[in-house]
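Before the break, one more example. Copy the sequence into your notebook; we will annotate it together after we see the structure.
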Amino acid sequence: MNIKIFNDTKTPLNRYLAIALCAATALVPSQVFAQQDSVVPDTAHDCLIEPLVLTDVGSPTQGIVARLMVDRGAQVTRGQPVVELESSIEQAVIEQAEARADMQGEVATREADLSLARLDSKRFIDLHSQKLAPAQQRDEAVAREQIANAALVQALENRQLQLLELKRTRRALEQRTIRSPVDGVVVSQLVYPGELVFDNPVMTIAQLDPLRVEVVLPARLFGTVEPGDTARIFPELESGNPMEARVEVVDPLLDARSGTFGVRLLLPNAELLVPAGQKCRVSFNAVDNAGSFIPARKNTDNAGVQAPELGAAVEPYNFREPR
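Here is what the structure looks like once it is written out:
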């Protein structure tokens, strides 16, 4: 199973170039956010909205795909079965292991042998104490009791091994059912019934709540943004009020070639209404009526903080922790 953070831009410079390219290749001459020019502050920065996690779901074992349990676009939860491999052989092995684990004959035989050996041992000990049996017969009876006891212990150990073997075969059968590692949406289906799964992924699942917002800031802003700060996000496809996101990661080093550093924010998306993969604008400051800059307030709790005003009040947006 291969789980990776969805990020095609490995360095702050590449992320900056990617964001700049998105803005430069717009289909219309006007800015992408023309419909929001009245609300997006001039200090806003270009950003990208991406899935928090993009998972290429693989199989821990090879086999033939027997059944697909979800289709592209389906919402899945963590642990939900998504693909089932052919498992008739594993089923037969489990039946055999269950039959062995239920066998009681060996243990019962060894218990009976031990009971008889104990009686003989006690009898010859009593006879020897009365001078009616030689010491050799007493010693042989005691030895037979010890041998019978060791045989019973071995039978119990064999039964324990059979139970462990049954557990192993059940785990092997469970691996024939591939499950989703995250709560998310099926992005693509990569196999079909009858295909062999070896080391190839079977489908791609994206975790869309919360979303990840990547932004590259100039070096002059280094130190002004910290993890836990809140910011306003203006998605390209949204024309309503801005959304509130929380800063999760701030790169501790500057990129010397571009003079920039990266920032990652988490944007709540409980209803999955905000599509990933779109461009956006992010504002870490707002302009008050007097024209001065007001730093965005930190999100000290997870109940949501109302964004600073920009002409009109912005409704608070509740933040949810990533699952």
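Residues 44 and 283 are 4 Å apart (CA to CA). The longest strand covers residues 203-218. Try to locate both features in your own notes.
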